[in-house]
């Protein structure tokens, strides 16, 4: 998968230097444990950390193409292009020669052949920097759905810093880590605004966009977005097309020169991916696919159902594994493992920003550690809910009609009724929340997103609204989920692929009418119909359940103790952000359950403020 970082400067008073570029790249060593590369040209430094997946021997980076013995184009590339073999053949027919078997070299030659339009030919998950020495311009490119991250920070004089993670940019001596009021609102808003990086002066390259950087300035260009088209296929044809796409996508994404596995929760989405992978491997006569599940102490005989989760995951994962014959492992975590600093601190460091997921992040990190011992690549069921309409709020009249992001609306979300109403906000000082104005910020971002939704003439009001909700999930919710998965996996050097994010599938299903997506009255009806024959009935009909978290009282007691330690003394950096009365209630001997996410957020904020020395450009004189 790898990590990229670099620096372009046209300022003779601030030229690029190898030590600084090297330091920027080294911050992401976990993303690329197999190799480290650095290339310097006139005005540019390209750094690279490599996780070897395709052509381990020949795919070293940065990769340079020379003309007449002089560097012409150089690339620092992360991710995978899944159609690289077809592209390689097309380019060979057009006269291109290749020295390696890597997809990196194919991307480089695609640029040489088609210029900036080469993005139209790529199918995959990628983010990369390409320096054209012939024009002295940098091109930053990000995949269509934003599966792989890429950040940039403009410099005076037309230059730019860039990296796969903010920490690479923050390592440059000219950058001061700071957030302002809007950054704080974005951090707490529980939505992901395209292009917003939270840190002042830093941006995230939007999915489906390129950024060209030269002496004349910066040019941002969109090369892909979901579009609205009339859907003319009948139900049976649509079901068949979804199945056809899924089989092709999974087959493409199983290609690697290293061991590949699947992440299997026992839910519909991960079971489909595992079943298709197992079936494809079987047709090739390959060994059984490896699959990995997560469980917690006490989720067996002691499991207690609630409104969100009616059953534990592990029995369903084991059922699917037996059904398809996968080589299956269940990773069971204890409260002690989830609370241990050696697990919590690396994932908080990998995230670069404080979030309130707590053991939702830590458990993912520990699961990925175990997966990495056996595989370098894993396929995940991420994005099926966003693409096919799997979340409960897709089917509830109150959330469908709410004037906000559906996941924030009652009865499932937290709404925008006022300060303190959102995820993780329970311990934040209400006066600070009022100054940030989260309700106003969310409302503004919501209406900005609605204005982007592509229209379809003649569409019914219901289909129009469901198209809007689908668009909101693809562009404001899914990127948040993808970023979490990327950071947790790359923190241990594991490449996670997400077949449901293939842009062909996304485009096709986005334009399928809602009545067809939910034709039998259930969530993800279309997906179930397309794959039912692959699965046991218990899984094909299983109700959607969210990602699991620990319910062990020992974990909650450990959180409370950690909160007490983090906020001891008036000089604790996070304390000035908190509501003292809420803090006292959260650290009491018998705190209310509602303080859990607030506690997780405060612990993450404390780690972030201490570790990053972040400047809060927010007036805290409340």
From TrEMBL:
Q: Which InterPro entries match?
A: Asn_synth_AEB, Asn_synthase, ASN_synthetase/amidase, AsnB_N, GATase_2_dom, Ntn_hydrolases_N, Rossmann-like_a/b/a_fold
Q: What residues make up the catalytic site?
A: 2
Alphabetized, the UniProt keywords read: Amino-acid biosynthesis, Asparagine biosynthesis, ATP-binding, Glutamine amidotransferase, Ligase, Nucleotide-binding
Which chain positions carry the site (Important for beta-aspartyl-AMP intermediate formation)?
A: 382
List, for all copies, the residue spans of the domain called Glutamine amidotransferase type-2: 2-216
Q: Which reaction does it catalyse?
A: L-aspartate + L-glutamine + ATP + H2O = L-asparagine + L-glutamate + AMP + diphosphate + H(+)
Q: Which domain of life is it from?
A: Bacteria
**Amino-acid biosynthesis: is it a keyword of this entry?**
yes
Q: State a GO cellular component annotated for this protein.
A: cytosol
Please name the GO terms of the biological process aspect recorded for this protein, alphabetically.
Answer: asparagine biosynthetic process
Residues at which ATP binds: 263, 380-381
Key word Amino-acid biosynthesis present in the record?
A: yes
UniProt EC number = 6.3.5.4
Annotated L-glutamine binding lies at 103
User: What Gene Ontology molecular function terms does this protein carry?
Assistant: asparagine synthase (glutamine-hydrolyzing) activity; ATP binding
Q: In which pathway does it act?
A: Amino-acid biosynthesis; L-asparagine biosynthesis; L-asparagine from L-aspartate (L-Gln route): step 1/1
User: Per its UniProt record, what NCBIfam families does this chain match?
Assistant: asn_synth_AEB
Question: What does the sequence similarity comment in the record state about its family?
Answer: Belongs to the asparagine synthetase family.
Identification of the protein by name: asparagine synthase (glutamine-hydrolyzing)
């Amino acid at each position: 998968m790898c990590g990229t970082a670099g620096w372009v400067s046209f300022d003779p008073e601030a030229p690029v230097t190898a030590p600084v570029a090297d330091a920027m790249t080294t911050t992401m060593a976990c993303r690329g444990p197999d190799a480290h590369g650095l290339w310097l040209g006139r005005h540019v430094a390209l750094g690279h950390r490599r996780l070897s997946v395709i052509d381990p021997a020949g795919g070293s980076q940065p990769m340079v193409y020379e003309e007449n013995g002089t560097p012409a184009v150089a690339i620092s590339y992360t991710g995978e292009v899944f159609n690289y073999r077809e592209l390689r053949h097309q380019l060979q027919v057009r006269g291109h020669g290749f020295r390696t078997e890597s997809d990196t070299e194919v991307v480089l030659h695609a640029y040489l052949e088609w210029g900036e339009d080469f993005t139209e030919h790529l199918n995959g998950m990628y983010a990369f920097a390409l320096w054209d020495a012939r024009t002295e311009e940098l091109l930053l490119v990000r995949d269509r759905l934003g599966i792989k991250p890429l950040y940039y920070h403009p410099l005076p004089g037309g230059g730019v810093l860039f990296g796969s993670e903010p920490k690479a940019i923050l390592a440059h001596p000219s950058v001061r880590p700071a957030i302002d009021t809007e950054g704080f609102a974005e951090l707490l808003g529980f939505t992901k605004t395209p292009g917003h990086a939270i840190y002042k002066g830093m941006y995230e390259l939007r999915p489906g966009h390129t950024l060209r950087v030269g002496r004349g300035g910066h040019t941002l260009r969109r090369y892909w977005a979901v579009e609205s088209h009339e859907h003319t296929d009948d139900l049976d044809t649509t079901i068949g097309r979804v199945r056809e796409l899924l089989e092709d996508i999974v087959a493409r994404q199983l290609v690697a020169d290293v061991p590949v596995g699947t992440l299997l929760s026992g839910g519909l989405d991960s079971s489909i991916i595992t079943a298709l992978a197992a079936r494809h491997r079987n047709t090739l006569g390959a060994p059984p696919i490896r699959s990995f599940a997560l469980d917690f102490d006490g989720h067996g005989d002691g499991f207690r159902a609630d409104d969100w989760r009616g059953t534990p995951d592990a029995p369903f994962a084991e059922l699917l594994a037996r059904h398809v014959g996968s080589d299956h492992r269940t990773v069971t975590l204890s409260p002690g493992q989830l609370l241990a600093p050696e697990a919590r601190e690396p994932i908080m460091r990998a995230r670069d920003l404080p979030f309130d997921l707590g053991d939702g992040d830590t458990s993912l990190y520990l699961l990925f550690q175990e997966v990495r011992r056996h595989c370098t690549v894993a396929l995940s069921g991420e994005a099926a809910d966003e693409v096919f309409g799997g979340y409960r709020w897709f089917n509830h009249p109150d959330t469908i009609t709410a004037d906000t992001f559906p996941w924030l609306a009652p009865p499932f979300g937290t709404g925008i009724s006022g300060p303190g109403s959102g995820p993780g906000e329970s311990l934040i000082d209400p006066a600070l929340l009022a100054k940030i104005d989260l309700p106003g910020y969310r409302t503004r971002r919501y209406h900005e997103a609605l204005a982007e939704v592509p229209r379809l003439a003649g569409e019914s009001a219901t289909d129009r609204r469901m198209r809007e909700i689908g668009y909101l999930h693809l562009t404001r919710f899914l990127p948040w989920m993808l970023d979490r998965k990327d950071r947790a996996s790359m923190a241990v050097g594991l490449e996670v692929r997400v077949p449901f994010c293939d842009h062909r599938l996304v485009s096709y299903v986005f334009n399928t009418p809602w009545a067809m997506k939910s034709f039998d009255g259930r969530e993800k009806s279309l997906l179930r119909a397309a794959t039912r024959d692959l699965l046991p009935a218990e899984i094909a009909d299983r109700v959607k359940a969210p990602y699991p978290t620990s319910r062990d009282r020992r974990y909650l007691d450990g959180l409370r103790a950690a909160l007490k330690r983090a906020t001891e003394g008036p000089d604790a950096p996070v304390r000035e952000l908190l509501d003292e009365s809420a803090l006292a209630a959260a650290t009491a001997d018998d705190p209310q359950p509602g303080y859990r996410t607030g506690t997780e957020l405060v612990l993450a904020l404390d780690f972030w403020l201490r570790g990053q020395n972040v400047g809060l450009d927010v007036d805290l004189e409340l």
